[in-house]
Amino acid sequence: MNLWRQIRPLALRIYYLFADGPRAFEAAENSVADLSSEFSALFFQHSGRVCDKWHHYLPVYDRLFGPFRSASKEGAPIRFLEIGVWRGGSLEIWRKFFGGSAVIHGIDRDESCAALNTSDLPVHIGSQTDQDFLANVVNQMEGLDIVLDDGSHRARDQRKTFDVLFPLLSDGGLYVIEDTHTSYWWSYGGGFRKPGTAIEMAKSLVDGMHSWYHRFPVKRKMWAKTDVNAVHFFDSIIAIEKKRRIPPVRSNRGVDPFGA
Ligand SMILES: C[S@@+](CC[C@H](N)C(=O)[O-])C[C@H]1O[C@@H](n2cnc3c(N)ncnc32)[C@H](O)[C@@H]1O
After folding, report:
1. CB atoms < 10 A from the CB of 241, how many?
2. Who's near 254: CB < 8 A, 6+ residues apart?
3. Is residue 168 part of a domain?
4. Domain count, the chain
């Protein structure tokens, strides 16, 4: 027993070396995502700076961001922050998607991304784990309605960023973490059901959201109980809706057919 305890970390490491990384799967050559999706159409027509996307994300963006897009098209200044700018292509597509009145900023720790900075699509250089930097960016944006974390994809960074930015999100805002398959990859700080990954953090938000009904210890319980309205899991995308909640209320209407 003692010996197992000692060698367990090493055994797990070796196991993860083999289990880590994507399984081989055959991508259909013509697997073009749902072209009726607005984002798909914009993505496949895009000829500006390069942007790299998994096809199955494209309709998910429509579903998640559709209501914000409609509000934005009607002139509401939706504030959208993308973590991970890379070559700047996604920022350009977000501008087309949300329209001219949206406030769209990007963050990247790679200094070469400073060359992509414009007054229309400001790019801030810094790390997604730097609390003061993030708070300063949100200040410049005058608030925050949507976060899309497409940055380092490392478990610890995703968690830290969430802990800083979720409280700064507006009521009714949406927090999205992308490429959450990395939660299973050792090389990204992940592992199967490993505490602390984005997937496990989101599961614990589900527990916290239900903590009106139980007393089990849950991390981030207080926020989740009062501020998390829904947690959506898609393949490699997690979306957390923020909405101030009041204690659940229950009542009934109608006539009891058994006459009680
Ligand atoms: C997957 S790319 C982003 C792709 C881009 N959103 C797109 O769709 O075209 C990830 C980016 O995150 C940046 N990044 C990695 N770690 C970061 C960190 N700690 N803070 C901020 N940006 C980071 C990288 O420099 C890289 O440009």
Report:
1. 16
2. none
3. yes
4. 1
- Return the residue whose CA atom lies nearest to atom 27 of ligand 1: 86
Beta-strand ranges (E) seen in the chain are 79-83, 103-108, 123-125, 146-149, 174-178, 228-234, 237-242
Backbone phi, then psi, for 151, in 5-degree steps? -90, -115
90 lines ligand 1 (CB under 6 A): yes
CB-ligand 1 contact for 173 (6 Å cutoff): no
Phi-psi region of 29 (alpha: psi -120 to 50; beta: other; left: phi over 0): alpha
pLDDT tens-place string over residues 189-240: 999 999 999 999 999 999 999 989 998 888 777 778 889 999 999 999 999 9
Q: Hey, how many other C-beta atoms are within 10 angstroms of the C-beta on 84?
A: 20
Cα of 110 to ligand 1 centre, how many Å? 8
Q: Residue 155: exposed, middle, or buried by beta-carbon count in 10 A (0-12, 13-18, 19+)?
A: buried
**pLDDT tens column, 74-92:** 999 999 999 999 999 999 9
The pTM (predicted TM-score) of the whole model is 0.91
Domain range for residue 88?
Answer: 36-242
**Residues with catalytic roles:** 153
Domain of residue 108, CATH code: 3.40.50.150
What would the two tokens of residue 64 be? 């998640």
Name the closest-CA residue to atom 16, ligand 1: 152
